[in-house]
Amino acid sequence: MSVDPATKDALVTHLLTHAVRRGSFTLKSGRPTNWFIDAKQTACRPEAMLLVADAVLSVCPAETTAIGGLTMGGDPVAFVTAAVAATRGRSIKAFSVRKEVKDHGGGGRIAGALDPGDRVVVTEDATTRGTSLLEAARVVREVGAEPILLCALVDRGGTCAAMAADEGLAFTSIVTAEDLGFPFEGP
Q1: By three-state DSSP, how is residue 13 classified?
Q2: Quick one: which of 159, 185, 153 has its CA closest to 81?
Q3: Is the pTM above the cut of 0.85?
Q4: pLDDT digits (tens, 9 = 90+) for 98-152
Q5: Architecture of 5-180 per CATH?
Q6: Residues with Cβ < 8 Å from 58, sequence gap 6 or more?
C-alpha cells in the first residue's frame, strides 16, 4: 500500500502551485503559522482529482467498503475517491460526518452512505494534529462501522500517527509538510 512516486510528485507540484500560501495565518488550534494549505484547491480541481483518487485508492485496504470524513475537509477526498473506485470495479460508498447532530429529517451526524459493519477509511484534506480525523472515526464507530485507516491528503503536523495509534487506529498521509518543503508543525 503505497502511492506511485509519479502521482505523489504531481500532487506535490499541484499543491505547491494551487494550495500552499505563505504569510501570517492562525491554525484551527489557534496557533500562528507562516504557511497555510488549502488542500481543497487541489482536491477540487479537475486536473488533480484523478491524482487524489489514485493516491488515496492506492492506500485503501482491499476490505474498504466506505470512505468519508468530517465535512468539509473529508468530503472532496472521499467523494472523488469513491467515484473513481466505481469506475475501477471497487464498490466503496461515500459519506460525510456533520459537525453537529442534525435535529430534523433522519437526524444524526452521518450524511450519505454508511452502514453498520462497514470497514471505513476516514479522510481529511489536510491535518495538523488529527483532531478532525479522530472525531470522525469516533462517529463512525458510534454508528457501528469500523474505521480501518485514517488518511490525510496532507499531514502538516507530523503527530497524527501517534494520536491515531493511541486509539488503536492506523494513519497514513499522501503528502507531508516536509514533502512540500516545510517543517512539521508538531502538536
Answers
A1: helix
A2: 153
A3: yes
A4: 988 766 656 689 999 999 999 999 999 999 889 999 999 999 999 999 999 999 9
A5: 3-Layer(aba) Sandwich (3.40)
A6: 1, 2, 3, 4, 7
